[in-house]
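Quick one, T. Sequence first:
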Amino acid sequence: MSKYQHIREAAYLANMKLPRLNLVIFTFGNVSEADRDLGVFAIKPSGVPYEVLSPANMVIVDFDGNIVEGDMRPSSDTKTHAVLYKHWDIGGICHTHSTYATSWAQALRDIPIYGTTHADHKTVDIPCAQPMHDDMIKGDYEYQTGFQIMDCLNERKLDYHQVEMILVGNHAPFTWGKNADKAVYSSAVLESIAQMALLTEQINPECKRMKDSLIKKHFERKHGPDSYYGQ
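Structure tokens:
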């Protein structure tokens, strides 16, 4: 058995959640799982339908984007994943073109924090990274997308450990976490928040951002030092 079998299986299972959660159609998405000790990650092969995927299909890539093991071409977004793994201490990344989150990305808008569902997970608006400069687009586009994501968080003074999701302007969302499963969870949460925010603005175009005291209360009851949500 390959020494990479554990991340192949984790990446496969996480990828298979995307269609079940209605986060992808056709082959519009990918998830990866890293083994930081080995310095590699497993990622979905490019353009392969979910119904024919298997753990054996997952491609093993190092943090410089080089294929280490696998018979298929990895996702076209592999270099973006590689950049984030190389610079951040994370174990899983998910990229989708889910309808509502992608719509906010196409509109080049942050998702405002309007309600407690959002505040249960984040205390800030979901950031939207502005489209990259033409010279970056003409260069190594997928590689530069990784820096586009990191630069946005750095400019906003946001910690990637706390804000595990972003919209890439005119593109779509990326999420990450300690493993692939957590990254997929964040993608599902982001899609739900994006849908609720859109409906909120349709119902009341003059709606205001949620007040800070309520944001703090809802986030800390779930994640604070004296949290009391869950068992």
